[in-house]
Design goal:
Strand content: 25-35%
Helix content: 25-40%
Radius of gyration: 20 Å
Largest sheet: 9 strands, antiparallel
Shape: globular
Structural class: alpha+beta
Distance between the termini: 29 Å
Number of strands: 9
Length: about 210
């Protein structure tokens, strides 16, 4: 495919509408409504979200992670020594992006990420499959790796070490909760005249406004 072919790719969005008068007063409630519809639609990887962080050097970085909880914020898990972890250590402000093309929707979230409690991380870690628990110990996430063989040898050693299946929470691994101060809900519309509804947190609560597409 050449550049001309890519430039000619277009999708006309006309599935749904979205307006500031029909959305929930709280963006987390509105997000839960949309997530229920995403789950009902059985889309691939419904909880996948792009997490963007900025490091101490001022350079942004983005990657896809999975949403593992929604309460007053958005919960995800990682190795605290990974690039995203070191970025958040130096600058706790981050953004999330959910994109559900089957529903022609996306949600942008901006806010501050905080580590969750060890108790919360332990409770979630216990629910992970055995292989994922071993993987959390085996991977020195974001660090150089000499070969795939090195990773697999490390995994085999850990499987022997924890052959009883009792794998403890790694001290370098756990969750974050991103507490939103702004959320935008995007619904695709024809002719690129999309619906964009913005929530912003103020001293007295959330304000809702419409943005130009």
């Amino acid at each position: 495919m050449n550049r001309r072919d890519i430039a000619d790719l277009r999708t006309e969005y006309q599935r749904e509408t979205l307006d500031e008068f029909s959305v929930a007063h709280n963006p987390l409630e509105q997000f839960s409504r949309w997530m229920d519809e995403v789950l009902a639609a059985e889309v691939l990887e419904p909880t996948a979200m792009t997490l963007a962080t900025v490091g101490a050097n001022g350079r942004p970085s983005a990657r896809t992670v999975l949403l593992k909880g929604i309460d007053e914020g958005f919960v995800f898990y990682t190795n605290y020594t990974s690039r995203k972890g070191t970025d958040l250590e130096s600058n706790p402000y981050a953004s999330l992006l959910f994109f559900w093309p089957d529903l022609q929707r996306q949600v942008r979230v901006e806010g501050r990420a905080e580590k969750i409690t060890i108790e919360e991380s332990e409770a979630y870690f216990r629910t992970r499959p055995l292989g994922s628990k071993i993987g959390a110990w085996a991977s020195q996430q974001s660090q150089p790796l000499s070969s795939r063989d090195e990773l697999e040898r490390r995994t085999i050693e850990l499987e022997r070490q924890y052959s009883d299946g009792n794998v403890p929470l790694p001290p370098f691994w756990g969750g974050y909760r991103l507490l939103p101060d702004a959320m935008e809900f995007w619904q695709g519309r024809p002719s690129r005249l999309h619906d964009r509804i913005l929530y912003e947190r103020g001293e007295t609560g959330w304000t809702i406004s419409r943005l130009s597409p």
